[in-house]
Fold each of these.
Amino acid sequence: MTNAATTSHHARSIAISWQSLAIHACLIIGALVMIYPLLWLASSSVKPPNLIFSDLSLWPARLRLQNYVDGWRGAALPFSTFFLNSFIISGFAVIGNVLACSMVAYAFARLNFALKKTLFALMMLTIMIPLHATLIPQYALFYNLGWVNTFLPLIVPKFLAVDAFFIFLMVQFIRGIPRELDEAATVDGAGPIRIYWSIILPLLTPALVTTAVFSFIWTYEDFLSPLVYLTSMDKYTVPQGLSLLMSSKGASSWGPLLAMSLLSLVPLFLVFFIFQRRLIEGIAATGLKG
Amino acid sequence: MSMIAQEKLPVSATRRPAHRQRAAVGINANNNAAAFLFLSPWILGMVCLTLGPILASFYLSLTSYDMFTAPQWIGLDNYVKMAFEDSRYYQSLKVTFTYVFLSVPLKLAFALGIAMLLNRGLRGLGFYRSVFYLPSLLGGSVAVAIMWRQVFSYDGIINQILLKFGIDGPSWITSTDYALYTLVALAVWQFGSPMVIFLAGLKQIPQDIYDAAEVDGAGSVRKFVSITLPLLTPIIFFNFVMQIIGAFQAFTPAYIISGGKGGPADATLFYTLYLYEQAFTNFQMGYASAMAWVLVGIIGLATAISFLSARYWVHYGDER
Amino acid sequence: MSVHLNRRALLRHGATMMGGAALSSLPLASSFAQDKVRVRFAGYVESQEQLTQTLAVLKLYTQKHPNVEIIPEFTNFGAFTDKIATETAGGNAPDMFSVNVDLLAEYARRGVTTPLDSYIPNPINLSDYLQSAVNAAKFDGKQFAIPNDAIGPAIITNASAFEKAGITLPPEMWTWEELAETASAFNKALGPRFWGVEDAGGNYIPCDIFLRSRGKSMFTQDHRLGFAPEDMEAWYAYWQKLRETRGTPPGDVQALAGNDDPSTSGIVAGRAAMNITLTDSFAGFQALTQDNLILHMMPNGFRGGEMKQRHYCYAGNSTTVSAKSPNQKHVIDIIRFMHFDPEGAKTYYVGSGMIPCSKAGRDAFAATGSEADRKIIAYLDVLQKEPAPPRYPGVPGMTGMLTRANEGVAFGKLTPKQAAEQFIREVSARLKK
């Protein structure tokens, strides 16, 4: 346990262990509620189609692993293509968001400049507009730039900090960092760039990791933007690959659809599982423990 | 780095927000050159990518635009129609406000509660954290739609259980009385994102402060009330504002019921769903754009009120 | 096509992305070359089988015509409508794309697509095609699309459930009263959680057939409403009565079942015997249940009234050509190949789940097709014995309007009369545009 320090003083006392037993019991019950639908998905993904919706039991009466083979192979392209495309786009989105949003957040949180409040309000405005209202002008813009059917419309905006969610997130985290640290560094002669790089960024690790995880997951799951910007099938991402399977009039879609739906969650789960550890370990590396 | 941290950190943990920042001196002086250097990606993105489409959508809100032929200027007609002639518009407002008022507090309460629980030195912490985040990974995918039906539909697990007690339950997910609440339940079930942000916020609270408080003999309740809660307020505020914005824009949950048509009988007609229907089913992009700008006004107002209230309850580490 | 996750592939993808060049790894678009004609073909597919065969026929075409490169841009119907609207509005419509009857009217009316009359009958000869389908692909008297398949309205009927309940299915030419009586018998025979027919009150085609049984129709040929308010009131009252006699499920149970999604249907869940839908859903329904499903006609009249075959066939999927496409000649040749080249047509249709729109194609299928294919063709043949007047184009969002009004009645918020008024008000507002 990396953060055992929190409870180390008490962990051995009996009262606490009863308490922790109760907590574990609650957590396990909660966990079951949380994952029941996933269990259903897992079980249905290995059922033959005529049992998926007619037999509700979690234990498949007959196994059909062929769903995975058929789904992976795909009618048009193998799912490996869709996974690769998704990984490339999501990977760049992570880098773009972490770099650009942390820079902008630092300026909003720590530096004073003209029109600060106005610009901040403008930034917040950009997250308030429903996606569908700006979709067509935005499409026309990217089309005229010649970016349609490339990954650019999905990646370049991330490097230009258009995700105000993450800027605002990091602003809040930076503002939680005591200003005394910056001031001490200023006394030592550090400028804003050095302060950003060697004080703020390391202390911001939890927020940076959160941004990275969410950037990856949300970009990976995004449907509408890839749908309109990636026109040819070899550029499709995982959700678009799934939507190809989501054609209900055929005889052979449901099994592969559910199988690939489950499989498509695996990278997300791995990213989350690995990074949530970094979230904890990252803090140990910053020296905040004292 | 770590030396600075050691020297400077254990200051008073609970800061009073009432004092506004002192006059600009030293680090507080305007630093336009550096600031605009840091802002440059955002300014470039704003000018080149974001601002144009935003302004275009505002212009379109003043036109009649069917997407394929040139927009016709009609002034405020779209807004007038929305206010006086469209009863479904008011239904969409009602649905959306109900959803916001129920889902946001419940989701945040769950997220904070579980985050607090998970922030202790528990065995299997990573496992729990991941499991509790799992539903949020599903987002608004097909899988989640199918699964939610397996729980709340007429043949779903809840009714299977009720049947054992001789109760023939309704189809919760598609009854005009309960449909919206099953979507609120879905939002609460997907509390993972604010939970992770809370966890990150909890991690950022320096351990020294707790240690110092413990030396002073503070119990766990006092530590929570006078250290955790105040130091977490910037993050609580963030989650609060973003959840409100997100809930007003709720769109995908409605796809779980009636294929995104807002059914049954408009019981789940979310604002953005109706906007989408106007734009992409009825080809009334001008009207949809006008709806978008009214929504911006509503969300903007809610956000502005949140920011004003923040002065009284949000404690920032950078304020003295 | 197997993609190896090696460094070269990564680099290639990286280069594609950075340079923005349309480097493609699909077999249909083998390389980026200036001298090739590039044709973008966007569409919706409704089954894996259809997607496989469509890609196969396009590949076959490019093999025979190395100077043409076809870029396939397919997805499912829901995603397609958003995608095509965005692309068209943004000035980037594909050269050729799929439409159904409603989309055809929207895109033709606004000049997005081009009339194809000059290519008929040479090289596109539709004389052997279902005339109702050809007519349904017209707008303002001009042929705006070429029908790819043939579908017709039908009741997907669970024969096993009829057997179990000991209820006999009336003959094909039956009345709306008989449907109601048959449906209501199930609830008594098989228990309170089983209903005879799923609510079709919000469904366009059955409503149109019902109106035609009353000597009216939903729309007229000149794009106006073809019925009086009391006709629509009778429609909503019909379903309300069925709900009361428990022939149809209550509003909440019904609302989940979209009539084109088998996974939410009562037939698949094992609590309904009949579902009114279209023949192209048949294979999808059959795949999800172990029961034996058959196709049966909807009622064609009222007791004591005129009995006449009123089911029209049309295409669920037609191909249309963008007015701005510089490659119209090539597009037409691709369509010709898919429909009339013996090898091309065979690749496009066999195993696709689509029923060909041509008589020759259907005859070939009747001998060689799958069991589902043969059931559908036999059913369509019955309809063709006495062809009904075609379907006339409506307005977008029809299903939504009908369903909202029907659900208003089902949930006790509207009377059938109010529901009819609400529906007429909403449709009329659309028709004016």
Note: The domain at 23-150+315-378 of chain C is CATH 3.40.190.10 (D-Maltodextrin-Binding Protein; domain 2).
Amino acid sequence: MSRRGFKKFRRKKDTPFEVELNSLLDVLVILLIFLIKNYTYSEVELSIPKGVRIPSSESQTIVHKGITIQMSKEFHIFVENKLIVELGDGEWSNENKVKLRNELMSIRDKIEKTTFESDETIPFSGVVNLIMDRDLNFEHIKKLMDVSADIGFEQFKFIVIET
Amino acid sequence: MYNVPSARRKKRKFNPLNLVPILDVIFILIFFLLASSQLMRIFEIGSDLPIFRLSTEEQEKPDEFELKIEVTETSITLSNYKKKKIIKRIDVDWENPDFYAEFNDVIKGIKADHPDEERVLVSSDNKVNYQHLVNLLDQIRHTRHEAGKPGRTELFRQIMFEE
């Protein structure tokens, strides 16, 4: 074979494969800006029970620490994610009020005991975060406020979602 | 034999910017933001002590004005609680945005007359829907978003519920 023929089949020099990172970086920067813009810091992690649609609001106040009372449309009442009372037909019986009161009282005792043992100077705040379904009536809010206030939880925060 | 150096400049090799460390940092930031931010933006609407829990010192205010808002399913009545004088009565149309605008205008007018007043007493009918009540609280707390105007002005930030 002539010299010319060899030249034809000579392998090309391998160039290292390079991933084009610029476009990936563009996407990531956009994603980062979006996440930073929508980032809200809250010291509290709230869990909303399944099926509960909390009301929407224009409020921009960050949620503060406190105990959570949740109430679903089916009149199930949870305290700190634990089901305490089921109001069958939405009627507040004395028995149900007592159950709720006892639970709140045990939570209050626990908070006070922890504060005492840890020598913290922060007094008991009495903050209640109310996570309630938007379709409920004011009657239930009032009843919950009343029972909580009896135990010393007197600062009510209505938990809402951004409009 | 000595070769005379060519006058032609050697082609300078272009070194691309190393994007990999930047990419690493951005990835870590994105993971951190995704893990720590809330997907739903949750806020709170604060409500202070109900009026029946207030100490006598707080109740005794030298001012002769205390705004009271009575909410029923059909109307809203704004009055001066101290003087038992009705300021305005508005018919309710919960689904109409103009109703909220009108209500907000009334609140703005009252705030303009009493700029130092921050407290409002809300008395609601048991049957009033929670979402509707939250919509009203939004109008009581802040002015509405207006096109071309930045931010909102605070109106009555201290909300109390009457027993």
Note: Chain A is about 35% helix and 20% strand.
